[in-house]
From TrEMBL:
Annotated Gene Ontology cellular component terms: protein-DNA complex
MF-aspect GO terms: DNA binding; DNA-binding transcription factor activity
Domain HTH lysR-type, first and last residues per copy: 1-58
Organism superkingdom: Bacteria
Any Pfam family the entry gives: HTH_1
Protein known as: LysR family transcriptional regulator
Keyword Kinase: no
Family the UniProt entry places it in: Belongs to the LysR transcriptional regulatory family.
């Protein structure tokens, strides 16, 4: 069994097509077929069953188990390959979301500055979902993100930084500027400024809409949190935002949702357990592992 055969097998499972898999790797279709045959012979199991050329590929029980194990193994191999090739790197790849990162990145940079190692930081602004995906794929070493539920995965060192409430914000001239609490259903007829899909506040807005049984009327999709807040200040619409992001914001009104309909954002910092820092990275990784909000 070799690494390439496992790559072919996993991609075939994901595409469901020998032709698409061969095209993806720029090899011939028989190359994929021979790889599957080698794996079948090794495990004494067909792994993949196809009744005819037009029928759907089906995994045997052994095939399902091999796919699950192989995905983990190939991810670890990719991580090992990167880490070994970059064993002398003097960089720590840190991905952070706009909401979570804007709160913590200044303090992290300050700690690196005090330790005389600011040059180690290679930072990337990402959506929360992309920041963690980058960590999963081995494209970054550390991720700071926020999500509706805290992630708890044994493959990562994860430290909870903060839990913050999702709140409605309006301008000071908005008709709701004297209201302190509302239900999700009351949001039905309001116009929203929102972030694009994949951002936490957008996912939470859609979750609140489900609770209130309506489709949110999004009149503008803001590219940044600042733009979203600035448009709310100008009474263009209202928005759902993380309360922790509003600490230094003036000229807005905050409204809480009813207790049974509140949503929360969990800020976390995570790093792969498989990541072994080299002698240059060790000091910075130690700062990040013990970083507190």
């Amino acid at each position: 069994m070799n690494e390439k055969d496992l790559f072919y097998f996993c991609k075939l499972v994901e595409t469901g097509s020998y032709t698409a898999t061969a095209s993806y790797f720029d090899v011939t279709q028989p190359t994929i077929s021979m790889a599957i045959k080698r794996l079948s012979n090794k495990f004494d199991d067909p792994l993949i069953i196809q009744k005819n050329k037009k029928s759907k590929l089906l995994l045997t029980t052994a095939g399902e188990l091999l796919y699950k194990k192989a995905v983990i193994l190939l991810r670890d191999i990719s991580s090992i390959n990167y880490d070994v090739k970059h064993a002398s790197d003097k960089k720590i790849r840190l991905a952070f979301s706009g909401e979570a990162g804007s709160i913590y990145i200044p303090d992290i940079i300050k700690k690196f500055y005090q330790a005389g190692i600011t040059s180690l930081l290679d930072t990337h602004l990402e959506r929360s979902s992309d920041a963690f995906e980058g960590l999963t794929q081995g494209d970054v070493d550390v991720a700071i993100y926020s999500w509706m539920v805290p992630i708890n995965d044994p493959d990562y060192f994860i430290h909870n930084l903060e839990r913050t409430e999702l709140v409605i914000i309006t301008g000071l001239d908005d008709p709701w500027s004297r209201i302190s609490e509302i239900s999700a259903a009351q949001l039905r007829n309001r116009k929203f400024i929102a972030r694009s899909h994949g951002y936490l506040t957008r996912e939470c807005l859609e979750q609140e809409a489900k609770l209130g049984d309506f489709n949110p009327n999004i009149i503008y999709t803001a590219t940044t949190m600042k733009l979203m807040i600035d448009l709310v200040k100008r009474n263009v619409g209202i928005a759902l935002a993380m309360e922790s992001s509003l600490r230094n914001v003036n000229d807005i009104h905050i409204i809480h949702l009813h207790s049974g309909q509140k949503l929360w954002a969990y800020m976390q910092i995570a790093m792969r357990k498989s990541f072994v820092p080299n002698k240059y990275q060790r000091k910075g990784i130690n700062i990040l592992r013990h970083f507190h909000a």
